[in-house]
Design goal:
- The protein has one domain: Sodium/glucose cotransporter.
- The radius of gyration is 23 Å and the shape is globular.
- Helix 6 runs antiparallel to helix 23, helix 9 packs across helix 15 and helix 9 crosses helix 18.
- The chain has 567 residues and is mostly helical.
- Helices cover 72% and strands 0% of the residues.
- Belongs to the sodium:solute symporter (SSF) (TC 2.A.21) family.
- Keywords: Membrane, Transmembrane, Transmembrane helix.
- It is a multi-pass membrane protein.
- GO terms for molecular function: D-glucose:sodium symporter activity.
- It holds the Pfam family SSF.
C-alpha cells in the first residue's frame, strides 16, 4: 500500500550531480509558472491561454499532456509483461483518432468558441447531458491525477527514501505551485519543456539497454528464448487482449481499442482538446493534434522497447514473467529497475528529472482541465452565474488547490494496481466511450434529441460499469468474476458495451422525443454547418506543411507503414 516504507531494492545511487540537475529542472518549472502568471489578466487567459499559442507549442503540449506517469510507467510495464502488442496503443489506439480530431472535430470545438467539451455538449443537448458529462469528467480527472501523483511520489520515494505519504505532499506542492500561478499557459509551456526532458531521459536509456543486450539481434534472441511466447509479435495481440481466439483478439484491438476507446479518448477528452483550443487560429487548432501525431508514433520506441529490454535484463522482471516473483517489485517498476542498473551518475539525474517531468505533465494536465470544467461548467453554470470575470479566475485557483488535495487521496486507489494500464483503461471505458458515442451521433445526426443525449450517456456509463463488475479483475476486489474477462480485454469489452448501449438507447429515445429547431444547431451539427464556418479562411494561402489535411495524410501513411513493418 501507499503508506509502506520505501523499497530499498529500487533505491537509485544518486549523487550531488544528479541532485543538482533535478534542482535546476525544478527552478525552470517554477520560473515558468511565475512568468506565466504575468500574462493572466482574464479567466480566458487562465483557463485557455487567451487562445493565443502557436500550433507547434500546442501540438507538443498535446502529446506531453498525455505523456504522463500512466503512459511512461504503464506502457513500459506492458512492454515488460506482454511485449510488442503494446504498440497498438499508439499506432491503432491513438494516431487515427488524433487525425480525425484535427481534420473533422476541431473546427466545431474552435469555431463554436466553447471553452470546454462539456460546454459543447450543453449547447448541443442541453443541461442534462452537460451535467452528466461535466460531473463524470471531473471525477475522472481526480482519479487519473491520483495515478500521476502516486507515481511521481514513487520517484521521490525511490530517490530520497522518503515515506510515500511525505513524497505525495511534496510532489503535489510543486505541481500545485505552477498550475495555480499561471493556469493553462504555465501547464502548456512546462509540457513543452517536459517533452524534451523526457526524450533526453529515455532515449539514452534505450540506447544503453540495447547495447547491453547485444543490439537488436541480441534482444530478439533473448526474448525469443524467454518465458513469454509471442512477445515480439504485435498481431494478433492475444498477449494484450487476453482472448484465446486470434480473430476475437484482432476484433477487440481494432474495434474496442482502435475505435471505441481511442476515438472516445482523443476526440472528446478535454485534457487533450484543451491544448488545441488554446491555439491562435482555427488552422493552428486543427494542426495541433496532427503535429502531435508525428512524435506520438515514435514515442513507443523509447518507452515500450525499454520495457522489453527490462524483461530480459532485469532479474526481478524475468522472475515475474516466470511466475516466481516475490512481491518486492511489480511490472510498473520495470523502467526504474532499468534506470537503476544501466545509467551512470549524471545520466541518472537526467533520467530522474525526465520521469518527474512526465508525472508532473500528466498531473498538471488533469488538474488544469479539471479546474476549467469545474469553474465554467459546474460553478458558473449551476451555482454562481453572472459574476465578474475575476471571480471565476479565483474559483479556478481554489479548484486547483482542492483538486490537488483530493488527488493525494485518489492516489491510494492507484497504489492497488500492479499494472496501471488496466486501471486507466477501465476508467476510459466508463467515461470516454459513452461520451464519444453520444458526441459522434449528435454531431452527424441532426434528429438526435436532448433527452436522448443524457439518457444514452448515462446508460452507456452504467453498461461499462456493469461489465467491469462482472469481469474477473477490471475493478480489482469489486469485480465478482461472473464472466470470463480480465485485463485489457475486459476494458475493451466494457468500452464496446458502453458504446453500443449508448447508441441503441439514444436512437430509441430520439424516436419518441421532439428534436430541436434546425436553426439552433448551426455550428453543432455537421450537415447544418456551412463549410466556411468549418475552415480557416486563410488556410488556402498556407504553405503545404501548415495544411491540416495534407499533414494528416502524411501521418496516416507513416503509421500504416509502421504497422506493416512491425507486425
Amino acid at each position: 500500500m501507499i503508506l509502506e516504507a520505501t523499497n530499498d531494492a529500487l533505491r537509485l545511487d544518486a549523487n550531488f550531480v544528479d541532485y543538482t540537475l533535478v534542482a535546476i529542472y525544478f527552478v525552470f518549472v517554477i520560473g515558468i509558472g511565475l512568468a506565466a502568471r504575468r500574462q493572466v489578466s482574464t479567466s480566458l487567459d487562465f483557463f485557455l491561454s487567451g487562445r493565443s499559442l502557436p500550433a507547434w507549442v500546442t501540438g507538443l503540449a498535446f502529446i506531453s499532456a498525455n505523456l504522463g506517469a500512466v503512459e511512461i510507467m504503464g506502457m513500459s510495464a506492458n512492454g515488460a509483461q506482454i511485449g510488442m502488442a503494446t504498440m497498438h496503443y499508439y499506432w491503432i489506439g491513438a494516431i487515427p483518432a488524433m487525425l480525425f480530431l484535427g481534420v473533422v472535430m476541431m473546427p466545431f470545438y474552435y469555431g463554436s468558441k466553447v471553452r470546454s467539451v462539456p460546454e459543447f455538449m450543453r449547447r448541443r443537448f442541453g443541461t442534462g447531458a452537460h451535467l452528466v458529462n461535466a460531473l463524470s469528467f471531473a471525477l475522472a480527472q481526480l482519479l487519473i491525477a491520483g495515478v500521476n501523483l502516486y507515481l511521481l511520489a514513487t520517484i521521490v520515494n525511490v530517490l530520497l527514501g522518503w515515506p510515500l505519504w511525505i513524497s505525495l505532499i511534496a510532489a503535489a506542492a510543486v505541481v500545485l505551485t505552477y498550475t495555480a500561478l499561471g493556469g493553462l499557459s504555465a501547464a502548456i509551456y512546462n509540457e513543452v519543456l517536459q517533452f524534451f526532458v523526457i526524450v533526453a531521459a529515455l532515449l539514452p536509456l534505450t540506447i544503453v539497454g540495447l547495447h547491453r543486450v547485444g543490439g537488436i539481434d541480441g534482444l530478439v534472441d533473448k526474448v525469443n528464448n524467454g518465458p513469454v511466447d509471442g512477445m515480439l509479435s504485435s498481431w494478433p495481440g492475444q498477449n494484450l487482449t487476453g482472448f484465446e481466439s486470434p480473430t476475437a483478439s484482432v476484433i477487440g484491438i481494432v474495434l474496442g481499442l482502435g475505435f471505441v476507446l481511442s476515438f472516445g479518448y482523443w476526440t472528446t477528452n478535454f485534457v487533450e482538446v484543451q491544448r488545441a483550443m488554446a491555439s491562435n487560429s482555427m488552422s493552428a487548432a486543427r494542426r495541433a493534434p496532427i503535429i502531435g501525431s508525428f512524435p506520438k508514433m515514435f514515442i513507443p520506441f523509447i518507452i515500450i522497447i525499454p520495457g522489453i529490454i527490462a524483461s530480459v535484463l532485469a532479474p526481478e522482471i524475468l522472475a515475474l514473467n516466470e511466475g516466481k516473483g516475490d512481491g518486492s517489485v511489480q511490472y510498473n517498476d520495470a523502467l526504474l529497475i532499468l534506470i537503476r542498473d544501466l545509467l551512470p551518475n549524471g545520466m541518472l539525474g537526467v533520467a530522474i528529472a525526465g520521469l518527474m517531468a512526465a508525472f508532473m505533465a500528466g498531473m498538471a494536465a488533469n488538474i488544469s482541465a479539471f479546474n476549467t470544467v469545474f469553474s465554467y461548467d459546474l460553478w458558473q453554470q449551476y451555482v454562481k452565474k453572472d459574476r465578474p470575470d475575476g471571480y471565476y479566475t479565483r474559483v479556478g485557483r481554489i479548484a486547483t488547490i482542492a483538486a490537488t488535495v483530493v488527488a493525494i487521496f485518489t492516489a491510494l486507489l492507484a497504489s492497488g494496481y500492479s499494472n496501471l494500464m488496466d486501471y486507466l483503461q477501465t476508467l476510459f471505458g466508463f467515461f470516454n466511450a459513452p461520451l464519444f458515442a453520444t458526441f459522434i451521433l449528435g454531431m452527424f445526426w441532426k434528429r438526435m434529441t436532448a433527452t436522448a443525449g443524457w439518457a444514452g450517456l448515462s446508460s452507456g456509463t452504467i453498461a461499462a460499469i456493469a461489465v467491469a463488475v462482472l469481469s474477473q479483475d477490471a475493478l480489482g476486489p469489486l469485480s465478482i468474476g461472473a464472466i470470463d474477462l480480465s485485463g485489457q480485454g475486459a476494458s475493451f469489452v466494457a468500452a464496446g458495451a458502453a458504446f453500443v448501449v449508448d447508441i441503441v438507447v439514444s436512437v430509441i429515445v430520439t424516436l419518441f422525443t421532439r428534436p430541436r429547431v434546425e436553426s439552433e444547431l448551426k455550428g453543432l451539427v455537421y450537415s447544418l454547418t456551412p463549410k466556411a464556418d468549418r475552415t480557416d479562411p486563410n488556410e488556402s494561402s498556407l504553405p503545404w506543411y501548415q495544411r491540416p489535411v495534407l499533414l494528416a495524410g502524411i501521418s496516416l501513411t507513416m503509421v500504416v507503414i509502421l504497422n506493416i513493418t512491425f507486425h
